[in-house]
Amino acid sequence: MTEVGLRHLFAAASTENYTVHFFRDYLELKEALSKRGFFSVIYSLSGSREQRREGLVLLSELSQLYPKTQRIILANDEREARLVSHLAPSGLHGIISKTASLDVLQAQLVTLLRETRRVNVNAHNHWYVSSSRMLSPTERAILQFMAYGYSMPEIATQLARNIKTIRAHKFNAMTKLGVSSDMGLLHAADILINISVPGEDYMMAESAVTAH
């Protein structure tokens, strides 16, 4: 979502109690955070894979450095929202799909902002993620290796498993996550690595909100 789109989203009268600040890179946000506190940081997933990974890592870093600050993700579509929700529900205050209508987006955003400073423990349930669809330890391990560039034969060697077994686990992971390609699974792997374990790296955000 562009800055123009984000400004339009925040133009609703119901968000008039908040001041919105936009940041195009991590350094700008980092400097701002050192000078003032933000009620909420909202990250819009977009750009290249590297930019997206940097953005995901920032949200994890924020959970460690600024635990009282809300962290909200604007996902590109419902599939991506489900992926984020499924792989990294802990500590996120909300996950919103950009494909929703403007009215729905604004309503969801206002609802999350009104939840004060506590983590919305039901954020991942917005997408009705069932515990029966959780990845197995082997499936999660495969995604982790994929995120670091390992091939299927290399993963089989690392996990001391037959290549056919690894491919079967990979297929199961794709089915559970609702993705149909290696690229989709790689995106899921990036989410798993860069959000679910807080504080591993650094990244950037697109907008931050302060309450009056």
Automatic annotation (TrEMBL):
Keywords from the named record: DNA-binding
Bilayer-crossing regions: none
Domain HTH luxR-type: 128-193
The organism's place on the tree of life at top rank: Bacteria
GO biological process, one term: regulation of DNA-templated transcription
Keyword DNA-binding included in the entry's annotation: yes
GO molecular function: DNA binding
Protein name: Bgl operon transcriptional regulator BglJ
